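[SOLVED] Need 3D model of a two-part complex

Original post:
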Amino acid sequence: MSKIIGIDLGTTNSAVAVIQGGEPKIVENNEGANTTPSIVAISKANERLVGLLAKRQSVTNPKNTIFSVKRLIGRKWSDPEVQRDKAWLPYEIKESDAGGVEIKMSDRWYKPEEISAMVLAKIKADTEAKLGEKIEEAVITVPAYFDDSQRQATKNAGEIAGFKVKRILNEPTAAALAYGLNKKKNEKIVVYDFGGGTFDVSVLEVGGDTVEVKATGGDTHLGGDDFDKTINEHLVKEYKKQEGIDVSKDPLALQRLREASERAKHELSTSVEAEINLPYITSDVSGPKHFLLKLTRAKLEELVHDYIERSIKILDSVIKETNLTIKDIDEIVLVGGQTRMPAMQEAVKKYFGKDPHRNINPDEVVALGAAVQAGILQGDVKDILLLDVTPLSLGIETRGGIFTKLIEKNTTIPTAKTQVFSTAADSQTSVEINVLQGEREMAADAKTLARFMLDGIPPAPMGVPQIEVSFDIDANGILSVSAKDKATGRSQSVRIEASTALSKEEIEKLKAEAATHAEEDRKKRELVEAKNSAEQLIYLAEKSLREAGDKVPADVKSGIEKKIEALKSVKESGDASRLKEAAAELSQEIQKIGAAMYGKSDNAGPGSAGEEEPPKTEEGTGTSN
Amino acid sequence: MIMNDEVKKPDEGGSQPSPQPETEIDQLKRKLDEYLNGWKRAKADLINYQKDEGKRFEEIMKFGTMDFIRDFIPVLDSFDLALSVLEKEGKAERGVYMIRAQLEDVLKKRGLERMAVAVGALFDPALHESVGEIESGEPPGTIAEEIEHGYLLYDRVVRPARVKLAKWKQELTTNN
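Solution:
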């Protein structure tokens, strides 16, 4: 069964998403971008172009470059919106025989849905190429205010493009789905959608499995493009004031300025000041002229203040229409790139007195929500196997009472993990494996699931034997723990049936406990680890002295012995930093053995310390699966 | 992703009244197939995921710097403008060319390449952006003038070359 994709068919840009691994993901187009301009053209070379390529030739081919077709789709010729748009759209439109709209591109007349279909067909082809599979079905979004005829026309566009249109979904509903708000009961949601060219407000009511649109409003000619235009005009004016030069007459200068001001607008969402630096913007009789202006966030906010104010007024009137009060609104969702502007977020927040949702990319949220709907429609696919996770970490007790975790919590099962450990003392012939469960740092605070002994380890210095400990959890949550001495092959194991059979409350309680004790546990563990390494260092120092015998000068020997005593005396003090200090001093002192033995010529030589140092804790030579 | 434990036990065979031996074998065979296929699918999913991740990682290594590199392009533009002004005044110092070359070299090492655009070549919206038209001796619709250089990062367009096109004769006649 092929995947259903979700498409946000926008006025200026479109985006597509699909469910992958249970999460909606945007699918990049052929040009490597997350959005595709909703533009179609027949080029002068008589080629049909869609998206970015159509945009790139729009300046020199305005009559055959069709954009904003969403403003026309499914509308009657007599619609005041159409009459209004007719005046400024650079391409030719006329009334169709059925009273709708027809668009001239090159030498043919097209219905708006045929143009939209070309955008959808590109999306289909690009998505198929990217995903490497055939796509046949889609969910397509439309504004909540679209009437039957506009919805039907959009559906037709999908079908012309070769899709089976599974659902025409409201854009605000899609945005709410992306945030998972459909799972809420009886909530009222406001979606504030400030796009590039249009502004929409919708009030939704979520109840059970349905999302009802209570009211909509907006302004079809208010958007982020107005912001860009205003900033640009301001910069041109300022420059004229400063230098007496009008750059608006110079198309190349204007283009550079447009790009720079758009960059500055984006920059001002994160910083409070942006510099617009365009050397050699133009020239006059006196020579080259440069453009250097600072734009502050405050100035930007002042420039676009009226637009934001207008949007809040519309928002207010839409909410009044529903007979709801601001207090009745449970959630607010921001959509559209322009909502990244802090002043706009602030205005919405001020109006509602609470923070809007805005952590999903506002350019992509509608497409992602459409993919969520597609996933719901796809529903009962058999290949989703429900896999459990271990609710708590599992591990064993190691030297000094530390809880060493082998399998971390939330690991998907079945899973297995192996780690090599060693002995903590010379000639140790057995080890006890204390199987633990929990989130705390110390074994004493964790729950013991089982204990067993592995004996018959041949006597050897501490740190030499290799004990391989394996944890294995099968699909039913049954844990098997085994320990094997790699030298003799002797092994012991235990099976624990109820390792995951904890109630939800128990698990939550254990996790909460771990969180409250985190700092204290960390300190405890740090101290034990310091003590462990101090003990090892003492062991090593004494052993080195013994082995070196008379080769070590008496003054070096007594120096080391003094440091050993010093370390021993602070070992039980419970002060990790003093312990570490004393250990560092001893470890420095030990170097002298090597220096003495290898002579003056090689005072930084390999030194016995480096070669024979056993692993710092009991944890041994590495992990493997 | 965490999924709550709603794994359904498929075992309900015991409650059925004396099943035919064949049906039971068939049933088991069906389950065997289902489980084996599920296992294969899971394995395949993992392998495919690893492949996709590998590809994605490669892309990130290659194109992760794209935004950063794109920010340098206006600097290269400014250099070009400065040099063309200095050339006109006959003051272009060799050192300035060298600084530009230095900057371009650094970016080249990271995969940036300037497009070669020839006057008279066919306009290609995959590589070029038209910013205007001029009357020219070139065939109409072809590139008459390069206004700003275009750049590629490996095979991707970081910025199209901005060009002016030669005017179509047809338009000249319709305009008259």
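Edit: The interface with chain A takes residues 1-3, 5-7, 38, 41-42, 49, 63, 74, 77-78, 81-82, 85, 122-123, 125-126, 128-133, 141, 147-148, 156-157, 160, 162, 165, 168 of chain B (CB under 8 Å).
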